[in-house]
Amino acid sequence: MTTRRIRGAAAVLATASVVTACSAPGSGGADGAAAAESVVIGVSTEPDTLSPLLGYGKDGNSKIFDGLLARDADMNLRPALAKALPKITDGGRTYTYTLREGVEFSDGEPLTARDVVFTYRTVLDDDTNNTFKSELAAVEDVRAVGDDTVVFTLRHPYAPFAARTVLPVVPEHVAGKQDPNTGAFNTEPVGTGPYVLVDWRKGEKLTFKANPHYWGGAPKVKKLTMAIVADDDVRATRLRSGDLDGAVLPPNLAATFKNDDDKKTYRATSYDFRAVTLPSGSPVTGDTAIRRALDLAVDRQAMVDKILDGAGRPAYGPLPVDDPWFAKDVERSRDLAEAGRILDAAGWKEGNDGIRAKDGRPARFTLYYPSGDKVRQDHALAYASDAKKAGIDVRVQSATWEVIEPRMKHDAVLAGFGSIGDPDFGLYTLLHSSLAGDGFNNMARYDNPAVDRALETGRRTQDPKARKAAYDDLQRALMKDPGYTFLTHIDHMYVLADRWTGLTTQTEPHEHGFAAGPWWNVEDWQPAP
Amino acid sequence: MTRLTARRALYAVPVLGVVTFGVFAVAAASPFDPVKAYAGTAALGADQETLDRLRDNLGVDRPFTAHWWDWLTSAVGGDLGRSTVMRQPVAEVIGERLLWSTLLCAVAFAAAVLLGTVLGVLAARRPGSLVDRAVTSLAYTLEAAPVFWIALLAVWLFALRLDVLPAGGLTDTGSDLVTFGGLVQHLVLPAGVLALSQLPWFTLYVRQGVGDALAEDPVRGARARGLSERTVLLGHALRSGLLPVLTLIGSRVPELITGALLVETVFSWPGIASATVEAATAVDFPLLAALTTLATAAVLAGNLLADLLYGLIDPRVKLEEM
């Protein structure tokens, strides 16, 4: 684990890169250090806002801001604005952070504990339109002690809390004077991070310049541009023409750059799963035998190979197979014969049309996927054809979320989620019975006391061993009653000009492209010799 | 002329009122959920409490008439309100984008009118000739081609194969300064594509108009008097042949706006059009109302312009009587 890289031991010869008038497009092939000082990245979406008060950068990697903590390449928490990892006392209910000395915002004002308190209190304020407020639901109070200490008091012991404190910290002296929902801070942010926003032309691009006073040392990449190109083909085209240095691409387009000498392809594994929700409230999808049969009937490897061009992994549960929290013994292969036996034993008998039925009720349900999402459509169709082989009739339909939402209670949905940071973040909202049908939480209305118990243990105990055991139990319980059929975890693909050394990717959440990707730590990039 | 303009301006006030009211009504009746649009993908993982809180904060459950009245009263006072989806004041959204959209549309429109007139006249000179057949079939082909497709084709050809023009944006992706040379370079493709999408109409109308005029008695008389072909064509036929085109110009404004929408999307052009779509799908009342007002005003202004030009050019029409 590389906690601290040796930076800037030698004096950095900061060649002031003077931006002159437009050069000819496609001049990305300039040589040496000058070319490595600027990077242009194409992404598909832009943030709605650059204000952490409304949720920007809540999972870290915001280039403009820092959180109290940050994550390294292996997703371990390390100190950022805090001097060290928090002191946890009071049985896991009190978290105390001491701030790093001498950190300044890009406008020259010093960072104090009051800025941290302001940030968290504003996010927790009901009048702030922050969509992620519930992620901090455990916080009862946050207060400053002196200039450099912040104390969080939690309502109940909450083991993964430290991982939430990657939330970026904003300056009270700027943001405190505005309405957090519509103030100028949303488009003209001021932070402590390695980069400073130069310009944001919505829908076109965001440009950042390196913050020479960054507490972690001045970045080698002086200029960072995030171009917003929604269309995959256009993005690939602009990458090929040299207009972009790097881009996020779907697997089939990323493959077209395979033989480019000056570009490298990066594949990031992710927590981003695709799964079918099987609502407990419906007599077919709520039946454990049907659920287990479906779970055994799907050919996950075929989905990875055919739908994702190999850029993904079979999903045997919400946690990906290479995650340290993954319980190895839940991996299972396809077994149609066993699926048939389970259905026969439960009284689902095959009829003349090949569809099974029980007490006159056919094994049939509707599966919705959001229209326009080709990857989900392919998953849904593959799922239906696999289910057919087990005698279960799945009717696939596309619709907008406005149409799907009221039907989530009875009909299956091809869902996609995935949170990074801690198993609790993704699993609690997905599986806990108390959150059944609560907005988009626990869409299947899954209700399993064994799983609930494991979730509670996992979030309350601080002991890593006990937590691991709890999440192992959870995954086994989920295998016995799979209220969701987990299909695949999707890899995210990136192509980037080969001008820097030592680039890595992190394990990524469902959301990706802007903060995730090989540029997650662009401030640490070193020019290739 | 002044009286006509003043009268039209007065008449525009109730029209704008009705149109904005209609927009609010339609937006309220649309299946789009403002909360989901506001929160984006975050809504698809949010709990009910969060969704309810946003509903409340955004005033989703208030009747649209109340929203409209609030918007109208503050807009009259000069405050256009705040856009929820853009997270910034409406005036700022429009201020940032209007110039670029206007520039794109004006350049494209001017190019389409000029080129359309030239091609139309060339085709009308000898109906049925090779030139006429070529121009007409080109016009029909372009008319049938989707703007989106032409735009992608242009990117592929000029940016990719030939590498002579940038594929999108306002400046080179790696630079921030908007310089004149750079802007011209970046404007060529989007404006060219938008002009192409408007070209067929003008060409065919001019061809028809000039062709009809060439068959009229005054022109035949001019020819009989032995005036040069040029004088006949430019002095007589073009003048009366362009009349239908002039009325067309104003009516093409809505068409131009929709065309600009697709072109701005493909070329990542930071204009008003892309903001309009977002505002509509997000049921962002203040922004939508302001943009609709703008579009309506543009259409009304287009019609006024057409009438004024008509009055100036057609000796049979008196502006005082309009």
From TrEMBL, chain A:
* Keyword Nuclease found: no
**Gene3D superfamilies (alphabetical):** Dipeptide-binding Protein, Domain 1, Dipeptide-binding Protein, Domain 3, Periplasmic binding protein-like II
**Keyword Transcription among record annotations:** no
InterPro entries assigned to the protein according to its UniProt record, in alphabetical order: Peptide/Ni-bd, SBP_5, SBP_5_dom
Superkingdom in the source lineage: Bacteria
Question: Signal peptide location in the record?
Answer: 1-21
Record Pfam families:
SBP_bac_5 (PF00496)
Q: Where is the Solute-binding protein family domain?
A: 77-434
Keywords, ordered alphabetically: Signal, Transport
UniProt lists the family membership as follows: Belongs to the bacterial solute-binding protein 5 family.
What is this protein called in UniProt?
ABC transporter substrate-binding protein
TrEMBL record, chain B:
Instruction: List UniProt keywords, sorted A-Z.
Output: Cell membrane, Membrane, Transmembrane, Transmembrane helix, Transport
The keyword Metal-binding belongs to this UniProt entry's keyword annotation = no
**Where does it live in the cell?**
Cell membrane
Q: Indicate whether DNA-binding appears among the record's keywords.
A: no
Q: What is its main location?
A: membrane
Tell me the superkingdom of the source: Bacteria
* Spans through the membrane: 9-29, 98-122, 134-157, 177-197, 287-313
Question: What InterPro entries does the annotation carry?
Answer: BPD_transp_1_N, MetI-like, MetI-like_sf
The record gives the membrane topology as:
Multi-pass membrane protein
Cite the PROSITE patterns for this sequence. ABC_TM1
Q: Which residues form the signal peptide?
A: none
Looking at the record, the residues that make up the ABC transmembrane type-1 domain are 98-306
**In this record, what's one Pfam family?**
BPD_transp_1
Alphabetical list of PANTHER family matching this protein: ABC TRANSPORTER PERMEASE PROTEIN (PTHR43163:SF9), DIPEPTIDE TRANSPORT SYSTEM PERMEASE PROTEIN DPPB-RELATED (PTHR43163)
Sequence similarity: Belongs to the binding-protein-dependent transport system permease family.
Q: Per its record, how is this protein called by name?
A: ABC transporter permease
- Please name the source species: Streptomyces tendae
Write the lineage as a comma-separated list: Bacteria, Bacillati, Actinomycetota, Actinomycetes, Kitasatosporales
